[in-house]
Design goal:
single chain; 188 residues; mainly alpha; Four Helix Bundle (Hemerythrin (Met), subunit A); 6 helices; globular
Length: 188
């Protein structure tokens, strides 16, 4: 008789990385508010890059847990939403309050849809477009943080920030619609 495979512990490296990312997300928001933009960039890049590491580690070493499946996307949403909200209040930021509201709204909608589908036993894994949305949002936030460090930013940096912010907003909307259409198709 085979013994059942052990359930991975919630106290593992991927979940510890997610918890550390959550702390860093709060630190990033505080640093932006205090206008300590260079440290905010460093904390944000560390937090964003460890997102990939915790997912890779969980799959590679069979440490995927129910807590991790909830915690990882939750922390992603806090990092992005918190930074966008903090940046829309930063002087000279190209991120408008409506943009931050759109990002937060999309994240709340997708989280609700995920809860509904997974509560019915379905799979609601991240789609490729959603992953590209996250990359564009991270790039936009880093670019804006770097731009705001200059009293007068170079024109190329300003235009890069604007392009990345609008790309992030576009992908936020389109990927949100992709999830809505996916759920509508599954609900038929």
């Amino acid at each position: 008789m085979d013994s059942p495979s052990p359930t991975p512990s919630n106290w593992n490296v991927p979940n510890a990385l997610s918890a550390a990312r959550l702390v860093l997300a709060v630190v990033v928001c505080i640093l932006i508010e205090w206008q300590w933009l260079f440290p905010a960039v460093i904390c944000f890049v560390i937090a964003a890059s460890t997102d990939w590491i915790d997912g890779w580690w969980a799959r590679k070493f069979n440490q995927v847990t129910k807590l991790g499946r909830i915690l990882d996307p939750f922390v992603d949403k806090i990092i992005i939403s918190g930074a966008m909200i903090a940046l829309c209040a930063a002087p000279g930021s190209p991120i408008a309050p409506w943009m931050a509201t759109l990002v937060v709204g999309r994240e709340l909608l997708v989280t609700s849809l995920r809860g509904m589908i997974e509560g019915q036993g379905g799979d609601f894994s991240a789609k490729q477009l959603g992953k590209w949305k996250m990359v564009a949002q991270c790039a936009a936030i880093v670019s804006v943080l770097i731009e705001l460090q200059f009293a007068t930013a170079p024109a190329w940096l300003h235009w890069t920030s604007l392009l990345l912010v609008w790309l992030a907003i576009l992908l936020t909307v389109v990927s949100g619609l992709e999830y809505v259409m996916l759920v509508a198709k599954k609900s038929q």
